[in-house]
Amino acid sequence: MGRSNTECQWPEKKSRNRSRIQIAFREISAVLVLFPALLGLSLPSSAWAQTGTDAKPDRIKANISRVDRDFIEANTKRSRDWPTVGLDYAETRFSKLNQINTDNVRDLGLVWSYNLESSRGIEATPLVVDGIMYQSAPWNVVHAIDARTGTKIWSFDPGVDRSKTYRGCCDAVSRGLALYKGKVFEAAYDGRLIALDAATGAKLWETDTLIDHDHSYTITGAPRVFNGKVVIGQSGAEYGVRGYVTAYDSETGHQLWRWFTVPGDPSKPFEDASMEAAAKTWDPSGKYWINGGGGAPWDSITFDPDLNMVYVGTGNGGPWNRKLRSPSGGDNLYLGSIVALNADTGRYVWHYQETPGDNWDYTSTQPMILADIKIDNVPRKVILHAPKNGFFFVIDRTNGKFISAKNFVDVNWATGYDANGRPIELPAARDADQYESIPGPDGAHNWQPMSFNPLTGLVYLPAQHIPVNLSPEKSFVQNAAAPGKLGGLLGGNIGFVFNPPKSAPFGRLLAWDPVHQKEVWRVEHVSPWNGGTLTTAGNLVFQGTADGRFVAYDAANGTKLWEMPTGTGAVAAAATYMVDDRQYISIAVGWGGSYGLTHRATEYQNPGTIYTYALGGTAKLPAFVKYQTEGLLQGVKYDPKDIREGGEIYVAAACVACHGVPGVGRGGNIINLGYVSAEEITNLRHILFHGPFRDQGMPDFSGKLTEGDVGKLQAFIQGTVDAIRPKSR
Ligand SMILES: O=C(O)c1cc(C(=O)O)c2c(n1)C(=O)C(=O)c1cc(C(=O)O)[nH]c1-2
Ligand SMILES: [Ca+2]
């Protein structure tokens, strides 16, 4: 599906006189987007006018105590509140509110803004019940806010050790919170599940959800709560972990059940029959269990109260390259799958594997929507899903049977799915020594939530194209992963690639008809990595964009009806709710996440901010802060013969993942090393060894890089910048 986008070109194609090396390095910035989150920028925090709150703890306690299954199901009928991350159990992000609609949306104005005082990605949709808003920010700082006025009620900082941020691949993000019977639940980056008193922010209990701390586990996903159980997965499949989901008692934090996504060491007893079955699809000669095999369920978990099933979206293989993980092949269950579990026991019920034998970081963790739709005039209970691999899936959620799949952007790894729901693969995608992966590892759709409007019958999907050249990693050391350690990255599929991808990246908003599996309308954006969507009974779709706008479209045809600037790129999805009979819309903005670490599409770098809008709102936007850097790096001494080896170190030590390619692009939410002062690069050893940015998550390279490596890195950084510096005539 999808017209090809030929008018966009890589910028370098327009200029002719560039050396091969600079082109290579430019393309690496698009290639390697998935490693430890390092430097943040410290931002000035502006003063925000706030007008107070009358939200007293007793009132909050009384209201949030009501949030249980009955409340959430009742709210699904009217959408007055936004009590769960995806609005309802089905995670439709379709609000029945229509006070704001296509006729009056032009009168939408700002009511308040709230400074989250952060410089990293904001990915969470706020929860709002009875006018009390709960928002999670980077490193899991939780804010409780009066939604009428934007006044802080309380905030809670769980004290995540920021110097360990490099343990995760893709920024210090949190995808949201959960509410249940008077408590706020959050899963912290360091693996703790924490219950807070919704009225006061006091910690009620916390539990360590990680099975070990030697492997590089983190958590970025939102917990889900149902029937007194808090369910959470974790992240780390780029770094060698074994994925699992666990349910905890919402009152006490005691573990109730756990289900692993991939099998463990076959010489030990299997945890359950589903693991025994899965092990048959892995080649034990890969010794995959030493590093876990992957499958980290780092985002989507949904619940169907009627079927009493929990649906888990599982992650990619670790390492990505199947030849290293499972040398003789195999589907490697349950990577890249949707798995249904019994909600009471966590026992496996069914699975559908969207990407058998993953080789490309094609996770199925992307947000699911449970919908009841008619297909061939027969009512079906389905899951709508657009995982990274570029196909839109409709799956029967009662039994996991494949109904249909269609690519929603161009893909080059498979031509389609057969009637049994198996992809028809193109051999080059696994066998080529160098392969332009489309979709690339950032996916044709990533975690940015889609929404489904039953009135239009359309899914609003933030789609993208970020091609990446993959090549088997020559220096890969089997089962020796450790972030920030030379040669220890677990990609296994990312060599030092010299040729740029042939196609240009893009981002677009798609309106997708899941019944007929076809695109109905699209909006082209200036950049990939745009926000999740919200749709309403006012016939509207709302989306934040990478280039710093919050936009409303007509849900039927995609006509743009309204927009406001946001002062930074927006990636999270918005929420809407009623307070005192007035409909509000809130979005938390803050540029970041995997692609956002190294790329940007705005000239502004405002701190993470919640914007709240209503009809007739007249509040002023906060001042926008220009993104500023030093000029192009100049004057660092180096030996040109060190450039190439320095580049290999720059890739292997994962510098490129957070800092991009020196001088190519001016950085995402982390600085590009081509735009810092010569002193900083001259003194690089002081930054690499026991350096000053450890408290922002940069690894300490002591003992991992040598003094000689430092000189080579300096050569690569300054040499690359010199290669691309515009020549004076
Ligand atoms: O395999 C994993 O464990 C894992 C974890 C995460 C994460 O926790 O954020 C991401 C990914 N993979 C990933 O592949 C990916 O594209 C990605 C994007 C983002 C983000 O927040 O922007 N996280 C992640
Ligand atoms: Ca991944």
TrEMBL record:
Matching Pfam families: Cytochrome_CBB3, PQQ
Q: Which organism is it from?
A: Bradyrhizobium barranii
Residue ranges of every copy of the Cytochrome c domain listed in the record = 641-721
Q: Write down the PANTHER family for this protein, in alphabetical order.
A: QUINOPROTEIN ALCOHOL DEHYDROGENASE (CYTOCHROME C)
Q: Which domain of life does the protein's organism represent?
A: Bacteria
Q: What SMART domains does UniProt report for this protein, alphabetically?
A: PQQ
Annotated keywords: Calcium, Disulfide bond, Heme, Iron, Metal-binding, Oxidoreductase, PQQ, Signal
**InterPro entries per UniProt:** Cyt_c-like_dom, Cyt_c-like_dom_sf, PQQ_b-propeller_rpt, PQQ_MeOH/EtOH_DH, PQQ_rpt_dom, Quinoprotein_ADH-like_sf, Quinoprotein_DH_CS
List the cofactors: pyrroloquinoline quinone; Ca(2+)
Q: What is this protein called?
A: PQQ-dependent dehydrogenase, methanol/ethanol family
Family per UniProt? Answer: Belongs to the bacterial PQQ dehydrogenase family.
